[in-house]
Amino acid sequence: MVQTAVLRQIAGVAVNPAVPDRAALNRFIQAMPKAELHIHIEGSLEPELIFELARRNQVKLPYASVEDLRAAYAFTNLQSFLDIYYAGASVLLHEADFFDMAWAYFLRAKADNVVHAELFFDPQTHTDRGVPFAAVIDGLRRACDRARNELGIQAELILCFLRHLSEEAAFTTLQQARPHRDKFVGVGLDSSEVGHPPEKFQRVFAAARELGLRAVAHAGEEGPPQYIWDALDLLQVQRIDHGVQALRDPVLVQRLREQRIPLTVCPLSNIKLCVFGDLAQHNIGELLRQGLVATINSDDPAYFGGYMNQNFVETFDALQLGAAEAITLARNSFEASFATHADKARYAALLEECCREHGVEA
Ligand SMILES: Nc1ncnc2[nH]cnc12
Ligand SMILES: [Zn+2]
């Protein structure tokens, strides 16, 4: 049924006179309310802010200038990116630094009409350098609260364990997080995927679920479909981050479709990290045609060349997607979010209003 509905929508847009050209479609995408569910807040740290914080905190960087740093953003795979990403985060020392980083992201997200955002953060990247856990989470939480009050963006935090580190280190982090339980909604799993399968973190995810936390995990970014199975069965996650390798396993696709397990896909990230050769080869169109609850997200926008709307517009151009897919992706993002029922209803109403204003069939 779901698949039929998607196909009908896709068929509809090809002849939809309400969206006559790419420029009109881009205006609709720009205005469309959307949720961002896969953003590493440390990956929103723009080179300019890295240099400003380095100066403020007297941290020496191995790059002479913003341009020098940007020139180093030529990645061949996930690990080549992570090495630079962790180096960039070394300028974050104080509560105010975490606030400034997240606030800069929220201003950018507002410009893209993001109405709901769930931010990943990597506490171990900071606590391992001696930064107190409280400085990290309090700065981020303060920015989330201000985003809600001043920008109308509902924002939540998801604590990610670094999978290249040990299970014991993840347990220590969960312990540090316990007094701050009310400041974040879930746990995730990120960093180097291949060689660090979900099973390594089965017990720590069980402990997190005991605390009433939601669970998500990166799986099937570079790693095999089996990691997606294991994230679902062993970690009992509610969403899969990336998941683009799922199409290699038709039985897995059937499960994802039937259980409506969302995939938080990040097209520009996948190109920058060489998961696909170019956007025309990206499989997000196919994921939608297969009836999966796929969403579009920016991952690490300061490193990968674009925030939400850039991801949408470049992907839509390359794959010749239309308004029907844009609406499906926005709806999927709300469905996949950890928003309350009341907020989900409000987002749906905003989307309908946007469709009406742009003459697009909802
Ligand atoms: N794309 C990505 N995959 C895994 N870990 C990450 N940490 C930041 N970005 C990441
Ligand atoms: Zn990610």
From TrEMBL:
Q: Where is it found, in Gene Ontology cellular component terms?
A: cytosol
User: One GO BP annotation here?
Assistant: adenine catabolic process
Reported EC number(s) for this entry are 3.5.4.2
Catalytic site residues?
Answer: 221
- Give the first-level EC class, as a single word: hydrolase
Which residues does the record give as substrate binding sites?
Answer: 300
Keywords in alphabetical order, please: Hydrolase, Metal-binding, Nucleotide metabolism, Zinc
Known cofactor(s): Zn(2+)
Q: Does the keyword Secreted apply?
A: no
Primary role: Catalyzes the hydrolytic deamination of adenine to hypoxanthine. Plays an important role in the purine salvage pathway and in nitrogen catabolism.
Q: Which NCBIfam families does this one have?
A: aden_deam, PRK09358.1-6
What's this protein's name?
Answer: Adenine deaminase
> Whose protein is this, by species?
Tahibacter aquaticus
